[in-house]
Each structure stands twice: as structure tokens, then as C-alpha cells.
Amino acid sequence: MRVLLLYPLFPKSFWSFEKTLALLNRKAMLPPLGLVTVAAILPQEWEFKLVDRNVRHVTEAEWAWADLVILSAMIVQKEDFLNQIKEAKRRGKAVAVGGPYPTALPEEAKASGADYLILDEGEITLPLFVEAIERGDAGGIFRSQGEKPDVTYTPVPRFDLLEFDAYSEMSVQFSRGCPFQCEFCDIIVLYGRKPRTKTPAQLLAELERLYELGWRRSIFMVDDNFIGNKRNVKLFLKELKPWMVEQGYPFSFATEASVDLAKDQELMDMMVQCNFGAVFLGIETPDEESLALTQKYQNTRDSLSDAVHAIARSGLRVMAGFIIGFDGEKPGAGDRIVQFVEKTAIPTALFSMLQALPDTALWHRLKREGRLRSESADINQVTLMNFVPTRPLEEIAREYIDAFWKLYEPECFLDRTYRHFRILGEATYPKKGKRSGKKLDWVTIRALLIICWRNGLLRRTRWQFWRNLFNMYRHNPGGLSSYLSVCAQLEHFLEYRQIVKEQMEAQLAQLPKQVLYSGSSDLSPPLLAK
Asked: Could you tell me the sign of the dihedral formed by the alpha carbons of 218, 221, 222, 226, in that order?
């Protein structure tokens, strides 16, 4: 069996970083970890080729070679996912699909022509699919029926199928699931509330494989909450540290975690000692009433600003996600988010309008209330809310546009980045121990020169940029490379904030005034799309 693993295009988004990646001659931030894991679970006598369409197109030779095409996608990849199913069927190929999007809305993949729907977690449903293939079945839908796999049996992903030079970072996964119950989150729907972790030896084998294949850059732990099981995380970090020392610190790490990380100094210290450099926090909003309503209680127990500072002082760069449009939200939420980001000096702040993801608790509540504007899944960071909010939609959208614009004013972004790295400089580098010396290649040198040229000469930020760079050299010289890397993100954000503004304005112009200016309490049932 010759299998073409196909990963659909992402639309431009907060995380796409095209302009920043172009500086380093990269094509995408992260590889499709799900597909290389699928390749490891399927029979190894099968032949595999992988094409990430965010890196390059499929060649005619690859289409001709394949007996079977397997696609995996998230909801934001919907458009290209459905198009590639149709293209594969046009060429007479058998098509199998899986991943978060078809698992949430399998009827859409089926309607586009997919033959096999491999839903839920692949460790359970892929063997069922293989049995169907061996029986000669021409199609089928495979579900886990609520069973969650033991991930300690998940094999090492087939990293050898990836085009390493195309990616800024590699990805590995330690755990699945999250112990919390945020109303808007689909992670607990997909993976459950009981975090399941791999063994330390298992994940070290994955890192060893990446090392053998020549990877020497950053690795993102794609767990949606890396610290969901703190006991097991600490056991892993205890094993990771001597391995990193022995190999000369070949990787740096980043991950996602809940804000209660700030209350565990031992865990933060262990992460820093293992060369973790950044963590993404789902802060969502500084409004406690909204946090309570959406059941994000873990963010209401302590001061969020204190938590951000504690994590940064420990040596972990903070990235954070924010959402506007919660029920009961008071006017001015966008400005309150901007004020919080400025106060805490978070350089990279993801900002989006609330969306009801399929099958989440929020989705079901809004459906009961008759407030879903659409039951389809045309969702990304530049689409209007897919439900009727409790305050006027235009008011929320205008706040979103204005706040995004303010967050990524060049002076504001560079100032936050500088202040954040000054905090990091107090703790990060002395705790990591000796790091292996890494020579700067010409691509990196060129990227740094372009950053200095644009921020230090072309833009009005020139004096601010050189002053901050000089002070960084004085106070945190070990962090200079990382600091300039974050400064480089401005190239992306300047373009993306314009995209946000233009696309939001275009969508607002197309909606009836009755929808724009009314909150849910003002709408009668005929105005709601069922």
C-alpha cells in the first residue's frame, strides 16, 4: 500500500508568521505531528510519502504514486481540506480522513467524498481502519466509542518523513487532555479531562530520534496543558535534564500551560534548567466575571498579573491568548485587555473574537438558546462571531479591531518586548548551565541584519530600537538572540493587523444593521440562523 499523507493549507493567522519565517528561509512554524504519528501506527510495510501544503504543493508524480490519500485537519484548515478531498477523488484515489475537524463534523468530510472517516484518537481507530482495508471494504466510519487510548503505547512518530529545513520548530507531545472545564474549549471534548502522559523514556526516545536526524533547533511541546499532570511532568523533566546536559543542550523548548504554573516554583525551575524558554498561557480576559461565566475558574484564584510576572521572573518568556465577546461582557473589554498586556509586558499576545467550536459546552448551550448564527465551521481569527453575543456585534468587532491595532503599534510592541526580556535576564541564563555553542549561519546573520535595518533605520522606532538593543547587551547579553527573534515577529504583526482590519470591516459591511446593532436579548427567533 502506497500512502500519501497530505496536510492542508492554513489560512493567514496570528500564528502563521509568513514574513518572519521568510527572514529565516522557512516555510512553516510547525510540522504535522498528527500525520507522522499516523504513519508510525499504520503497518510499517506500507510505503509513505508526506506533503505539507504549507511547505509545497503535491507533484504529479506523487499523485500518480499513491494508492491511498490520508488527510488530517483542524477546523481552520477546512477550505483546503475539503478541496484536497475533492482533488484526490477526481484523480480516482481512495481517501481517508481524520483529525479534530472531521471528528467534530464528520458529515462535512463525508459530503466532500471521503471514503474512510478515521475519527477520535488514532491509536484506537487506525487499527479498525487497517482491518477494513484488509477485508477489502471500500469505505467506513471508525470511532472509539468513548474509549481513550493509553498513550504509553504510542510509537515514535515518523519524523524521517518531514522536510526539516522547511520548519522553524519541531513538535512533540507529552500528554493529552486537560483537567479543567472551560466552556469554549474543545480539548476536553476531543481528549477528555484526565491528562494521559507518555513515559519519560518514551518521550526521550522521540527526542533522541530527532537528534539522530540532525535537528538542533527549537521544539514545541504541543500539549494543550503541559502541566495537566504535574507529578508526571516533573518525573519527565528529571530525566530530561541529564539527557540535555549529555547532548550539550541541542534543543530549546516551548509549550502551553495553565496559569497555575506560577504557583509551582520547583516546576518552573525544572523547566528552565531543561532549556524551556517560553510558555503560552490562556489568560483569555482580565474580567473576572467573564472568566467565571466561561468556567475558567483556575484564572480567578490569584492575580493574573502576579502570575505572569512570577513566570517571567523564573526565566520563561510568556506568550498569552486573549478573547473578546464573552456573555455579559461590559463595553471596553478590548481596552482592558490592551491595558493588561501593557502592564504585564507580554510581547506576543494572541487576540481573537470568541467562537463556538463544534460540540463544546458553549456550542451546545448556544444551540439550546437559539443563538448560533451557523452550525458550519467557518472559523478563524478573522471571522466574526458565529453566534449572537449579548452586546452588539459591531461594538465587539470595533473593539477587537482597535485593540489589535494598538497591541501591535511598533513602539508598543518593541517596548513590551524589551521590558519582558529585562525581566527574563534576571533569572534565565544562570540557571540553565552550560549551553553548547552554536555557530550563526548566514541565513540567521542575514535575518538579524534585516531586523536591524528595518527597525533601526527605516522605521520611526530607530532610536528606541538601538537604545533597547544597547541596554539588552549590557544587562542580558545571553538573551540577545532570542530578543531579536521576538522583535522579528513585528514583521508579521504589522501585516496581520491590517488583514484583521480589512477582513473584519468587509464582513461588518455585509451584515444587516439589525444583526450588527442588537445583542441576543434584542433578537427575535426569526433573526437567528438555525
From this structure: negative
Q: Which stretch of 49-53, 139-143, 292-296 has the lowest confidence by average pLDDT?
A: 292-296
Average pLDDT of the residues of the chain = 92
For the four alpha carbons of 224, 228, 229 and 230, in that order, the dihedral sign comes to positive
In angstroms, the Cα distances linking 477 to 50, 53, 105, 298, 430 are 40, 38, 50, 36, 12
CA distance 472 to 459: 20
Question: Which are the contacts of 220, defined by CB distance < 8 A and separation ≥ 6?
Answer: 30, 169, 170, 171, 172, 253, 254, 255
Q: Measured between alpha carbons, how far is residue 73 from residues 32, 255, 407 in Å?
A: 9, 21, 30
How many angstroms separate the Cα of 163 from the Cα of each of 55, 213, 219, 477?
9, 11, 15, 33
Compute φ and ψ for 344, nearest 5 degrees: -90, -5
Query: What nine digits make up the cell of 153?
Result: 503505547
Beta-bridged to residue 348, according to DSSP, are 319
Find out whether 273 and 238 touch, Cβ atoms under 8 Å.
Answer: no
Give the helix, strand, coil percentages of the chain, each rounded to 5: 50, 15, 35
31 contact partners, CB below 8 Å, separation of at least 6: 52, 162, 167, 170, 171
Which CATH architecture fits 169-422? Alpha-Beta Horseshoe (3.80)
Contact in structure between 70 and 98 (CB atoms under 8 Å): yes
Residue 369: all three cell numbers together: 438558546
Q: Would the CA dihedral through 266, 271, 273, 279 be positive or negative?
A: negative
CA gyration radius for the chain?
Answer: 23
Contact 27, 99 (CB under 8 A): no
Amino acid 477: pLDDT: 87
Which residue, 311, 237, 307, 246, is CA-closest to 273?
Answer: 237
Give Cβ neighbours of residue 392 (< 8 Å, ≥ 6 apart): 516, 517, 518, 519
Supply φ then ψ for residue 309, to 5 degrees: -65, -40
> Please, are residues 67 and 1 in contact by the beta-carbon 8 Å criterion?
yes
Which DSSP category does 28 fall into? Answer: B
Residue 514: per-residue pLDDT? 64
pLDDT above 80 for 377: no
On whether the 2-142 domain is CATH 3.40.190.10, my answer is: no
Whole-number Å distance between alpha carbons of 360 and 338: 28
Q: Where are the domains of the chain?
A: 2-142, 169-422, 439-488
Q: Which of 27, 25, 34 is nearest to 7 (CA)?
A: 34
Of the candidates 3, 93, 94, the residue with the CA atom closest to the CA atom of residue 48: 3
Distance CA 99, CA 492 (A): 28
| Residue 73 to residue 38: CA distance in whole angstroms | 13
CA–CA distance, 18 with 499 (Å, rounded to integer): 13
- Which cell numbers hold the place of 182? 472551560
pTM: 0.93
Nearest-10 Cα torsion for 308, 310, 313, 314: -110
State the pLDDT at residue 185: 93
What's the rounded Cα separation, in Å, for the pair 162 and 39? Answer: 11
